[in-house]
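Retro notes (design track)

What went well: tokenization of the new backbones is finally stable.
What didn't: we kept losing track of which sequence belonged to which structure.
Fix going forward: every design gets posted as structure first, then sequence, in one message. First example under the new rule, 404 residues:
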């Protein structure tokens, strides 16, 4: 465990003023793919644009160092050690990102072995999903004061603050990433965001991977109903971790893998003009071919507007999608000008009259969305038909794209 190097902690004053829903720093201008099929990054929160990277977020490539710190409270005596609780999250979270990134991301987590005792009872902080700003600021102020001088956050890209799961004031619906409008100085570190974890035991499956996705600038893909009642999974169903951590097929969309730098331009077929084009899609979850990305297409992308694209990718059971009950070519629409939780991605239902996986799917109507051999989908608005042909010997599909 790396410790603080002795610099006095800065006073965490006026923390409430710094808390915000979005980051305001301007994105970088580094292009990561060819222009016709990229979408531009917009000012919306967690924009799905892939023409640049926002350097206020850590790159999800190489070794990304994380630290997990544990907070206890005077109104509860922890029943388990921090290391035991950490096993609920690691190595599972590291494994998820290793598989999703084709081995390009190593999320290396350090676990602080001692409980840090908060000065106030857990119930006094009013912890809940829609947290009252003053109470949330008090919680963060007290937590960061404890951390300062104990752990050097400058050594880490990701910070997890884990509350005692048995404390009476802990609301498991409150786990989320907290963003600061301006970086908060804690010892030698400037902290832009951190993950506040309020899970009961055992925690939601893949919950930490979902929150870590936000740290890498990925949006929420669920649809939060008014007053919190209704169907949360109408946009993408089971098909991406950022939609639901409970999904049967939580592998990240190929679009997200492109955005994060795990796929490059050579893995993307861009449909630039009208007419007919043929493409061979390899399964999005299969290991990448080495040295020849041109024969390893993972996405077919058809730009349909200034900030919109139609995407096709192949999904098969295995690895992160090991619990999936269907397979085929999955189609979805991406909008880079739509904010997190407002529907930046919509899965297109290839079988609108049927559903599947009723016993386990978070949204059965989309569980059978992928198209199999001999099936097609016509997008009348965009004038695009996608026809699915035979499977390949490597488990993917040949597809035909016809653009009016």
């Amino acid at each position: 465990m790396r410790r603080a190097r002795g610099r006095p902690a800065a006073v965490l004053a006026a923390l409430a003023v710094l808390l915000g829903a979005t980051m305001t720093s301007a994105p970088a201008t580094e292009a990561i793919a060819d222009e016709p099929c990229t979408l531009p990054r917009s000012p919306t929160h967690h924009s799905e644009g892939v023409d640049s990277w926002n350097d206020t977020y850590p790159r999800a490539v190489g070794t990304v160092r994380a630290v997990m710190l544990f907070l206890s409270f005077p109104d509860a005596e922890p029943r388990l050690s921090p290391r035991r609780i950490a096993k609920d999250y690691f190595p599972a979270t590291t494994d998820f990102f290793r598989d999703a990134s084709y081995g390009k991301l190593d999320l290396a987590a350090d676990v602080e072995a001692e409980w840090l005792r908060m000065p106030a009872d857990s119930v006094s902080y009013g912890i809940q999903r829609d947290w009252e700003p003053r109470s949330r600021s008090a919680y963060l102020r007290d937590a960061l004061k404890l951390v300062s001088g104990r752990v050097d956050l400058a050594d880490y890209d990701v910070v997890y603050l884990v509350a005692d799961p048995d404390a009476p004031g802990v609301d498991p619906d409150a786990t989320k990433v907290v963003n600061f409008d301006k970086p908060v100085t804690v010892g030698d570190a400037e902290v832009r965001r951190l993950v506040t974890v309020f899970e009961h035991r055992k925690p939601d499956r893949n919950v930490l991977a979902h929150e870590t996705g936000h740290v890498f600038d990925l949006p929420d893909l669920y649809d939060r109903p008014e007053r919190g009642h209704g169907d949360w999974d109408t946009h993408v169903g089971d098909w991406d971790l950022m939609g639901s951590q409970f999904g049967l097929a939580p592998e990240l969309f190929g679009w997200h893998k492109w955005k994060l730098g795990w796929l490059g331009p050579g893995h993307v077929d861009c449909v630039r003009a009208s007419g007919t084009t043929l493409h061979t899609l390899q399964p999005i979850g299969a290991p990448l071919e080495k040295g020849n990305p041109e024969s390893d297409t993972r996405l077919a992308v058809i730009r349909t507007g200034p900030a919109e694209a139609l995407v096709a990718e192949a999904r098969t059971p295995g690895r992160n999608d090991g619990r999936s009950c269907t397979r085929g070519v999955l189609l979805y629409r991406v909008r880079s000008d739509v904010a997190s939780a407002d529907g930046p991605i919509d899965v297109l239902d290839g079988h609108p009259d049927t559903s599947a996986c009723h016993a386990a799917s978070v949204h059965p109507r989309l569980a059978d969305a992928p198209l199999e051999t001999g099936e097609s989908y016509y997008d009348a608005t965009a004038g695009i038909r996608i026809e699915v042909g035979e499977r390949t010997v490597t488990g993917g599909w040949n597809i035909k794209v016809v653009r009016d």
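Added context from the reviewer: The first strand starts at residue 19 and ends at 20.
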